[in-house]
Amino acid sequence: MKALIPAAGFGSRLRPLTFSRPKPVLPVAGQPIIAYALQHLRSVGIEDIAIVTSDATEAPLRAALADWPDVTYLRQAYMGGLGHAVAGAEEWADGDDLCVMLADNLFEHSPAGLLQAFRDGGAHAALALIEVEDPRAFGVAELDGEGASGRVRSIVEKPEQPETNLAVAGLYCFTPRIFEALRQVPVSARGELELTDAISWLIRDGAVVRGYRQPGWWKDTGRPADLLEANAWMLARQGSVQRGTVEHSLVQGNVVIEAGAQVCRSVIVGPAYIGPDAVIEDARLGPGVSVGRGAQVIGAIVRHSILEAGACVSGLSGTLSDSILGQGAQLSRQPATSYHQCLMPDASTLSIAGD
Q1: Which ranges carry the Glucose-1-phosphate adenylyltransferase/Bifunctional protein GlmU-like C-terminal hexapeptide domain (predicted)?
Q2: Other Cβ atoms closer than 10 A to 193
Q3: Any alpha helices (H) in the chain, and if so which ranges?
Q4: At a CB cut-off of 8 Å and minimum separation 6, what does 289 contact?
Q5: Are residues 198 and 320 located together in one domain of the fold?
Q6: Within a domain: residue 232?
Q7: 217 and 242 assigned to the same domain
Q8: How would you classify residue 333: left for phi > 0, otherwise alpha for psi between -120 and 50, otherwise beta?
Q9: In terms of domains, do 110 and 31 share one?
Q10: CATH code, 71
Q11: Are residues 62 and 136 in the same domain?
Q12: How far apart are CA 47 and CA 11, in angstroms?
């Protein structure tokens, strides 16, 4: 089996963060989002992995994944939808089964259970399904049986009155028959080739399509709040590692302090991640804070936030919370209020005189 990770889009709902970089390279708990997909796929023994890119996203993806040299990059000619991204990989797949995992989806557990349901059930396709409170924003599957897996009877995209609460998550397995299905379905009203339409075609054509109730949590990191929630989840899973320097400071809970980082006269409350060469002075961090390589927090209180590489927060009079600062963003000298919330793109500066 091979694996495909579609990652050609920039992610408009995460602007301004994605004006300069695509969504899959944004960091969660110190790693690019897409790195978690790669780790999950490798954990189940899939070594042949391709990432679908575009003209605009390939360079930043290659740069962010420099530690993953054995990945293949496939160029999507235009933004033609998820089905179009999969269809373009037919020659590369070369007759093998295919696991498709979306670059911006985070799963607590690996695809092992889905792969077993796919292989043991003699399926032509298998879909990871997640129980959600409000399924109207998702593709919704009707499943035979109440067990961990069953045959999918139908998929309805964003139904007004869902028959079930089983949302189709961004994780699939296919035999090469998916490429036949993609050739049979027309583009949708929004001008895209929809993978959901191809799966529905398989069901109508009598193919075996299995649904698997994926355990644990799942997050589509489409919006800033989703990114922050995912960051907190992933931080909570890490252990405690201290490779950097800690002086006259208190560190509580699960905290990773990478090599070259300096923590001085500060309080760190986990879960938190402090990247290589970061500087934390006279500050209070956490919980739920991720600080990127070379970032600085000086004379500030920061909680439930992501500070990317080279970002700097200094001299705040209140608490910075629920915020994301892009690479090299600079935030300082806020007014004397108790709470601040910011979404700052790369290389931006916000400096306001205090009261």
Answers
A1: 234-297
A2: 21
A3: 33-43, 58-64, 82-87, 90-93, 112-120, 177-184, 195-204, 224-237
A4: 235, 272, 273, 302, 303, 304, 305, 306, 307
A5: no
A6: no
A7: no
A8: left
A9: yes
A10: 3.90.550.10
A11: yes
A12: 27
pLDDT in tens, 278-312: 999 999 998 999 999 999 999 999 999 999 999 99
Q: Identity (one letter) of the amino acid at 335? A: P
State the amino acid at position 143 in one-letter form. Answer: L
The residue type of 22 is P
117: containing domain: 2-223
Instruction: Confirm whether 231 is domain-assigned.
Output: no
Residue pair 199/209 in contact (Cβ under 8 Å)? The answer is yes
Picking from 262, 255, 288, 261, the residue whose alpha carbon sits closest to that of residue 275 is 261
Q: Find the helix packing angle between 195-204 and 177-184, rounded to 10°.
A: 100
Kindly report each contact of residues 256-265 with a partner whose C-beta sits within 8 Å and lies 24 or more positions away, as own/partner.
256/30, 258/30, 258/293
Whether 265 and 259 have beta carbons less than 8 Å apart is answered as no
Please give the DSSP secondary-structure letter assigned to residue 135.
G
CB count, 10 Å around CB of 256? 22
Each residue's pLDDT tens digit, 241-278: 999 999 999 999 999 999 999 999 999 999 999 999 99
Strands (E) across 103-164 are located at: 105-107, 125-131, 139-143, 149-157
Q: How far apart are CA 340 and CA 187, in angstroms?
A: 45
- CATH classification of the domain holding 328: 2.160.10
